[in-house]
Amino acid sequence: MLEESGTEGPVGIDRGVADPDVGVLSAARADTPRPMMVLNGVSKSFGQMQALSQVDLEIHAGEVHVLLGENGAGKSTLIKTLAGIYAPDAGEILLDGNRLVLGGPSDARRAGISVIHQELALVPHLTVEENIVLGREPRFSIPGSIDRRVQRETAQRALELVGFDGDPRGKVANLTTARQQLVEIAKALAHRSRILVMDEPTASISERDATNLHAIIGDLKRRGVAIVFISHRMREVFELADRVTVLRDGRKILTALPHATTPELLIKAMVGRTVGSFYQRLERFVAGEVILETRALCSAAGLVDMNIVVRSGEVVGLAGLVGSGRTEFARAVFGLDRRTGGEVLLHQLPLPADPVRAVRSGIAFVPESRKEHGLALTKSVCDNLTLPALWKIFPHGLRSRRRADQVARGLIERLRIATRSTRQPVRTLSGGNQQKVVIGKWLPIEGNRRLIIIDEPTRGIDVGAKAEILKLVEGLAAEGCGILMISSELPEVVGFCDRVYVLQSGTVRGELSGAHLTEEAIMKLAVHHDS
Q1: What's the gap between Cα 382 and its chain centre?
Q2: First and final CA of the chain: distance in angstroms?
């Protein structure tokens, strides 16, 4: 609902929280046209927790405004305020100079605001075209009768704008995550959205799909759509952003123009301290005995003659492009994928392809997707932290809630997991804290733990949480664990790993270490083609 207001947005003003070390990097340009949307002093609290505190923000037509901040900085609350899910306790939102009062998500949609959350809001059992017109179905004059021809034409026009070449009559459940995102964007365009809010849209898609999404965002900018984009990827921020705003502890720290700032300054603004190159290991350890060795390992998932060695106390990286076989190797070692040849040796003894035997032999597996494969989302933090080690915690089979809580509290304290209690549902934790749970659930198996396989340990979490996760992994290596780490972040691979195997098409193309371990060397092997 729009109300007339004599108040205009503070054009050309950046009112960040004073920070003598960071400061306001740049103000908005004096010649910038009037913003489409302005937030003036928006605040929101939940009980004693101040989620947003006097946040000012300008959103301009035809621009990408990136929001940065650690988990818990206030980004999600701000998004939900724009979506009409939360009403601000103080402050105001102006749209085209008029005060905007949102009584709910439907008011936001009518105002031309669409939000694409990380958890996509499509209906899986409906078709693509049915999802696009959902809530605004074209109808005949006969009540309840949908005009399928107009529905298809409306959907097709919107899908063409985002380059979707699939069947509009196909079920959404059969689409990849990247294609579902295209459907969400098409739905927003079909509903004539002027402001599109995207919450980490590239966190769970391939680099190729991310590049395609970036091109679509560029096209939306040219059409005058204002885009609010949340990302933890610095490279992406500087590729896409016209403006960058950093939130910390519910406050706006700064708004900057990308050409006037650096990744280091933005990270410092996000965490309130100098992070430096947190991909660098603080210390290296002398590699010990061989823990894992694979000899000519082949699998039904496409692995061919994989020969890899991991020793105690070292971090071994697996690098390569999407589809190179990194995750498939981890799954084959753990026993999730069928092996078709070769052998896996753990401490020089054959390891069968059986996940239960793998766990009892001391192998921990932190999967790529924590929500799909790493957590029981309907269960509590305590349940998740103790589930893999029930046989160890309760050796006689008699379970005790008190004992389980005791183990969970110890892990929560050790890993600094931000949770209200051991009984808090794990799905309500931030991404960084969820990742700590996924890693922490293997720690009770102290006497048996020998090898930790961790797939994309820092994906979809903020820079502060990344530093904590990597410090945790480093500590496990210091205790003598062998670490096999899969990562698509090349600075992470180069700075953190002792040795790196580069994979392509399910086989090892080369091994790098020391001065030879560089981003350029990894990419050269990753894209290598036999002549």
Answers
A1: 23
A2: 64
Q: Is 277 exposed, middle or buried (0-12, 13-18, 19+ CB in 10 A)?
A: exposed
Residues 459 and 511 in one domain: yes
The CA-CA-CA angle for residues 243, 188, 78, to 5°, reads 45
Contact 489, 307 (CB under 8 A): no
Q: Report yes or no on 29 lying in a domain.
A: no
CB 189 within 8 A of CB 24: no
CB 201 within 8 A of CB 209: no
Amino acid identity of residue 499, one-letter, is R
Residue with tokens 């009770």: 444
Question: How many helices and strands in the chain, by DSSP H and E?
Answer: 17, 21
Same domain, 470 and 531: yes
In a domain, 268, yes or no: no
As a whole number, mean pLDDT of residues 119-140 equals 81
Whether residue 325 lies inside any domain: the answer is: yes
pLDDT tens digits, residue range 262-292?
888 887 888 775 544 556 665 666 778 999 9
Return d(Cα 22, Cα 273) in angstroms, integer.
10
What is the C-alpha separation between 464 and 95, in angstroms, rounded?
Answer: 34
Give the pLDDT confidence of 419-474 residue by residue, as tens digits. Answer: 888 899 998 888 888 888 998 888 866 555 589 999 988 877 777 778 888 888 88
DSSP percent split of the chain into helix, strand, coil, nearest 5:
35, 25, 40
Residues 6+ away with beta carbon under 8 Å from 399: 390
Co-location of 313 and 435 in the same domain: no
Edge-first strand listing for the sheet containing 349-350:
306-311, 290-299, 339-346, 349-350
Q: Which amino acid is present at 75?
A: K
Q: Does one domain contain both 472 and 525?
A: yes
Q: Name residues whose C-beta falls within 8 Å of residue 189's C-beta, 6 or more positions apart in sequence.
A: 158, 161, 162
pTM check: above 0.85? no
Read off the tokens for 348: 């020089």
Are residue 141 and residue 184 in the same domain, yes or no? yes
Task: Tell me which H or E stretch contains 501.
Answer: strand 499-504
Closest CA to 466 of 137, 147, 232, 215: 232
Where in the sequence is the domain holding 394, given as residue range(s)?
379-444
Query: Final residue of a domain: which of 161, 190, 219?
Result: 190
Question: Rounded to an integer, what distance in angstroms lies between the CA atom of residue 383 and that of residue 423?
Answer: 8
Residues 395 and 440 placed together within one structural domain of the fold: yes
Q: Are residues 318 and 430 in the same domain?
A: no
Q: Are residues 358 and 455 in the same domain?
A: yes
Out of 190, 221, 239, a domain closes at 190
CA distances (Å), 377 to each of 293, 410, 456, in order? 34, 21, 19
Residue 184 burial (CB count, 10 A): 23
Decide if 31 is inside a domain.
no
Residues in the chain: 531
3-state DSSP call for residue 158?
A: helix
Q: Which amino acid is at 76?
A: S
State the chain's mean pLDDT as an integer. 83
